[in-house]
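Ops channel
N.P.: pipeline sanity check, posting one input/output pair.
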């Protein structure tokens, strides 16, 4: 991550399919019913929150499975069924009174490019589309659905020079104090 300044990131937004999931969609005659999320990413969302960083979802698809997972993880912002994501990201920035430069967005496909090119840090999983990989400021080693949010949270929070152990202390202290109501895997 040489020369990548993560110090002013106040909001981390994620696409879902291909980022928080492996991109698989399980469809029955009733429609989309299952999405394979990675449990490691759940703690990443709470870890970011513990460090004062807002989180959100801006997804091109909408589904009951996604709604359920977003509710479990208590994201600060949830926007689904949105193909033109940039205006929604601007609305979130206005709500938080921050600039695009204070946003990191993790996406994997061409629908994510307008946002990734505008925000402070564009992040991509290792298996993102070629055009996304070419535009990303940071390419993770994780594939979509394999702990992308956790890997990025760890990189973001240790970029200031803190050790990984000290980054997790705030979360571990909450767990030790049995303050676990909002913690979800």
């Amino acid at each position: 991550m040489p020369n990548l300044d993560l110090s002013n990131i106040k909001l981390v937004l994620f696409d879902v399919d291909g980022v928080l999931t492996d991109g698989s969609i399980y469809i029955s005659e009733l429609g989309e019913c299952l999405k394979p999320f990675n449990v490691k990413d759940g703690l990443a969302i709470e870890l970011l929150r513990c460090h004062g960083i807002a989180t959100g979802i801006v997804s091109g698809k909408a589904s009951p499975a996604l709604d359920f997972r977003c509710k479990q993880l208590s994201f600060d912002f949830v926007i689904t069924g949105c193909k033109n994501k940039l205006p929604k990201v601007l609305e979130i920035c206005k709500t938080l009174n921050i600039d695009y430069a204070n946003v990191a967005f993790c996406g994997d496909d061409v629908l994510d490019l307008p946002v990734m090119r505008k925000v402070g840090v564009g992040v991509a999983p290792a298996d993102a589309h070629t055009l996304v990989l070419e535009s990303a400021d940071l390419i993770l080693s994780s594939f979509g659905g394999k702990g992308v949010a956790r890997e990025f949270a760890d990189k973001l929070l240790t970029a200031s020079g803190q050790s990984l152990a000290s980054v997790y202390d705030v979360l571990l202290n909450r767990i030790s104090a049995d303050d676990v109501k909002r913690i979800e895997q």
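N.P.: looks fine end to end. The chain has one domain: 13-176.
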